[in-house]
Amino acid sequence: MNNFDSHLTPAERKVLNRLDTPARIQDWLNGIPYSDDAFYRCPLRVLRDRKGHCFDGALFAAAALRRLGFPPLIVELIPNARDDDHLLAVFKQRGGWGAIAQSNFSGLRYREPIYRSVRELVISYFDDFFNAAGEKTLRGCRGPFNLSAFDRLDWMASDAGLDALADGMDRYRVRALLTPEMAANLAPVDERSLKAGLIGANPDGLFKVGS
What we know:
The chain is α+β, with helices and mostly antiparallel strands. Helices cover about 35% and strands about 15% of the residues.
């Protein structure tokens, strides 16, 4: 944390100091554009560029939570082959699990800390986790994993080690949420829910669903 804070300007420190609850961290992420860039931004760069995709947003939220005394925990939501994965910064407060996230879909962001387990928290994303074709795509998850294990990569203040961080997360075991029979019998997302999920979406940041 001391290394991260040493990079901050007084104005940047003032911004972060205002993010003194999980909900305020989420509000800040809601106010920046969703990035369609093919590279990762560290939390310091997200703060300076005022943009980020889900990986960037989760790391930013984990860093901001860490400043509040929470461990920097990440959970990855794993889809089928017809969608992108999604990252959450998760936290436990008053006995319940909650999450902060940046997403191109309106339903894949904040969760109040009311869930009794990480699995219950993850399942709360199921109906909102769909692709632009209206297919429900969430199939598994991995984590939570503590980003302090990657502090040697200076992930809070430098982009240089983020590819290695992503590769490191890929080594964690994926836990299935659905059986193959469940996945084969899912109803499509109704048109109204699809439109609601895509409100304000950046089209260039959507997974391109083939035929």
